[in-house]
Amino acid sequence: MKVIDIINTAKANGKPRFSFELLPPLKGDGLEKIFGAIDRLMPYDPAFINVTCHREEIKYTERPDGLIQKHIVRRRPGTTGVCAAIKQKYGIEVVPHLICGGQTKYDIEDTLIDMDFLGIQNVLALRGDAMPGASRFVPHKEGHAHADALVQQVMEMNKGNFIDGEPNTHHKTDFCVGVAGYPEKHVESPNSLTDLGYLKQKVDAGAEYIATQICYDADTLIAFRDKCADLGINAEVLPGLKPFATKTQLTVLPQTFAVDLPQQLVEKVMACSDNDDVKKVGVEWAIMQGEKLLKAGFPILHFYTMTRTQQVEDIVKGLGM
Question: In angstroms, how far is the first alpha carbon of the chain from the final one?
Fold first, then answer.
């Protein structure tokens, strides 16, 4: 089932649901940790599971002759394979992340063909981050610079059109595409209005729903949805939540995701004696956010878990989902 159909069913039934995001395992690891994280949440009927996709990195090694050799490596490969394994084991819908970074249009086309073969109907189309250590995003010379072009490529495949211009008259893909939205604007955007303009380009290209960046203020998420509607961004917004788990996140999260932390949350976390207490505060805050978001009519709450799902289980139970 497509994510947009899941969203519309939740709205029609008046029964909101939740989804969550996982990381692929590090190269060489198996799926045990992934399956353990999913097993914890399956009794609560999650709507779908996202699986992230990660950029290549540069690794330097010393050769026997003493010279330094550069290698391109991926520390978390296998997004499509992980999605296929989850779908086969649990029968739940999966949403692989598809990124522009480090990939040609032909690489992306091949990945989409593999997803189609595996019965995966959903993708989250993202530009992706800059390479680790780089100051800015640089697209592949044969790839896409922005996510709206990536969405357009998926839409062309849905029409049966390949990159080389040759139409496929025998089979067309049928992907549902989601994109990212930034309630507090993307760190690279000059202002919120410009950022919303970029979001509109992605939706106009064919995206059917928006998964937001993590945000700790329910009012900001509600206002973001309303601004989208005012600007004619006709796609359902799924608010992104991440429960606080450690004190170090007070600095790490703003630095990594450019999010603003409410003062009340900061004070509660700073007052904690250890990270066990922080986790309790994180659950309580997310429940408070969730209650407000559900009351405002959001059909799906989307949780960023880093493959640690115990807090999400506590939140889902606390919300009665």
Answer: 21
Which tokens sit at 64?
């026997």
Task: Look at residues 273, 154, 260, 177 and name the one whose alpha carbon lies nearest to residue 213.
Answer: 260
Distance CA 89, CA 201 (A): 36
CA atoms within 13 A on the CB side of 31: 15
DSSP sequence for 278-311: HHHHHHHHHHHHHHHHHHTT-SEEEEE-TT--HH
* pLDDT tens sequence for the chain (321 residues): 999 999 999 999 999 999 999 999 998 799 999 999 999 999 999 999 999 998 777 677 777 877 777 767 777 888 999 999 999 999 999 999 999 998 999 999 999 999 999 999 999 999 988 777 777 888 889 999 999 999 999 999 999 999 887 777 778 999 999 999 999 988 889 999 999 999 999 999 999 999 999 999 999 999 999 999 999 999 999 999 999 999 999 999 999 888 999 999 999 999 999 999 999 999 999 999 999 999 999 999 999 999 999 999 999 999 998
Residue that is written with structure tokens 């209005």 in the block = 193
Instruction: Report phi then psi at 303, rounded to 5.
Output: -110, 135
CB-based contact 76:24 (threshold 8 Å)? yes
Q: Which two tokens stand for residue 183?
A: 């309630």
- pTM value surpassing 0.90: yes
- The count of other CB atoms within 10 Å of the CB of residue 47 is 22
Question: 310-319 and 32-41 helices cross at what angle (nearest 10)?
Answer: 10
CA 85 to chain centre: 19
Torsion angle of the four alpha carbons 276, 260, 79, 208, in this order, in degrees rounded to the nearest 10: 130
Determine contact, residues 57/64, Cβ cutoff 8 Å.
no
